[in-house]
């Protein structure tokens, strides 16, 4: 008998929401199975990179999900699959030079947003240089990668932070980033955007060598996906402390909770929703869908056109809407029938519900 996925989805989403409401963020078990194995493989790789940073005397601090995981779980957030750290600009650039001299480097000109080909380029380099450390500088962070292909590789993401002039306000900065964002989205190739950011940093006097005010760099994705609440004070981050993360100690901000709450409100509570293995799923999605559309030149050109339209002239207020537009476009392009859409929604929600049941104590 043919399944009614619209009806099944309505049933499972209600069960999911009811169960989700019973969870306490600080009282969850670790992930299990394949995801836990991947987290531990990532941790082992991160130990090597952290050791190199320590040997080079380059300070770092956890950010994003890694910071929340350290504060809330003493390790990985149960559904997360990556490791993110921040560095101040001078230390960040020193490490990039180290990467260029010691790792395999992915040429940024090989990757473009409209081609959506980062995963494919990663896979090419991983297969050409198996079990060698690979370095990829993107417009939004630096990624250090290790593995044999896109399916088994692990990575650590590094995000630049800058010192800013004391007299600029967060309101002024919001408008500034809106302008930068619009200009950025008129460009496509990774190398072109990286060069644009470098020129802006070197010529704009708001960037200084030292101050009591710290914030994301122009080449830090958080500048474009998070609401700007306030700058970080120097004392929020420094002097760095030590904190437990899984079975190791890592450097952490002087006032880590204050830093985290400026990134994410209510970060010690359950988020509005979860996404299991978001980065692993995105890699798989990008490689599969890109390979699919290259078989149809019209769809490939249409994808690039809509992407560029969606990504231009974006303001701080509708930045999340932009992501929704792109996702909706993908769904409509590849999942034409309503039942196929609801089948995917049902399967995804059922997967999340089953996963949450494994991490509730």
Short description:
The chain has 361 residues and is an alpha+beta fold. It has helices at 5-20, 33-55, 64-73, 89-102, 118-128, 170-184, 190-203, 222-225, 234-237, 256-263, 278-293, 297-311, 319-334, 338-359, and strands spanning 61-62, 83-88, 104-106, 134-137, 142-146, 154-164, 207-208, 213-216, 232-233, 241-245, 248-252.
Q: What do these coordinates show?
A:
With 361 residues, the protein is an alpha+beta fold. The chain has one domain. The chain is 52% helix and 14% strand. It has 14 helices and 11 strands. The protein has helices at 5-20, 33-55, 64-73, 89-102, 118-128, 170-184, 190-203, 222-225, 234-237, 256-263, 278-293, 297-311, 319-334, 338-359, and strands at residues 61-62, 83-88, 104-106, 134-137, 142-146, 154-164, 207-208, 213-216, 232-233, 241-245, 248-252. The strands form 2 sheets. Strands 1, 2, 3, 4, 5, 6, 7, 8 and 9 form a 9-stranded mixed beta sheet that branches. It has a two-stranded antiparallel sheet with strand order 10-11. β5 and β6 form a beta hairpin. It is globular, with a radius of gyration of 21 Å.
């Amino acid at each position: 008998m043919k399944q009614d996925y619209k009806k099944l989805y309505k049933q499972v989403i209600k069960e999911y929401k009811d169960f989700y409401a019973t969870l306490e963020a600080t009282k969850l078990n670790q992930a299990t199975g394949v995801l836990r194995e991947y987290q531990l493989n990532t941790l082992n790789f991160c130990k090597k990179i952290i050791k190199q940073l320590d040997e080079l005397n380059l300070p770092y601090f956890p950010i994003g999900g890694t910071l929340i995981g350290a504060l809330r779980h003493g390790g990985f957030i149960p559904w997360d699959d990556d490791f993110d750290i921040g560095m101040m600009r001078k230390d960040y650039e020193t490490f990039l030079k180290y990467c260029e001299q010691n790792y395999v480097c992915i040429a940024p000109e090989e990757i473009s947003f409209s081609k959506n080909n980062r995963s494919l380029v990663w896979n090419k380099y991983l297969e050409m240089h198996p079990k060698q450390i690979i370095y990829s500088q993107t417009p939004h962070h630096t990624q250090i990668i290790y593995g044999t292909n896109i399916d088994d590789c692990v990575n650590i993401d590094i995000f630049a932070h800058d010192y800013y002039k004391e007299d600029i306000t967060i309101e002024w900065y919001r408008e500034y980033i809106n302008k930068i964002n619009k200009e950025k989205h008129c460009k496509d190739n990774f190398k072109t955007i990286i060069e644009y950011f470098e020129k802006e940093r070197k010529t704009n006097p708001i960037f200084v060598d030292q101050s009591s005010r710290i914030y994301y760099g122009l080449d830090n994705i958080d500048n474009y996906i998070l609401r700007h609440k306030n700058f970080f004070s120097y004392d929020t981050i420094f002097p760095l402390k030590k904190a437990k993360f899984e079975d190791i100690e890592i450097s952490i901000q002087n006032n880590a909770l204050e830093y985290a709450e400026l990134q994410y409100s209510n970060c010690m509570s359950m988020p509005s929703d979860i996404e299991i293995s978001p980065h692993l799923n995105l890699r798989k999605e990008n490689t599969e869908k890109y390979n699919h559309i290259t078989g149809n030149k019209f769809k490939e050109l249409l994808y690039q056109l809509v992407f560029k339209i969606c990504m231009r002239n974006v303001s701080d207020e509708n930045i999340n809407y932009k992501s929704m537009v792109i996702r909706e476009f993908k769904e409509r392009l590849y999942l034409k029938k309503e039942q196929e859409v609801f089948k995917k929604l049902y399967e995804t929600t059922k997967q999340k519900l089953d996963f949450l049941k494994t991490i509730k104590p």
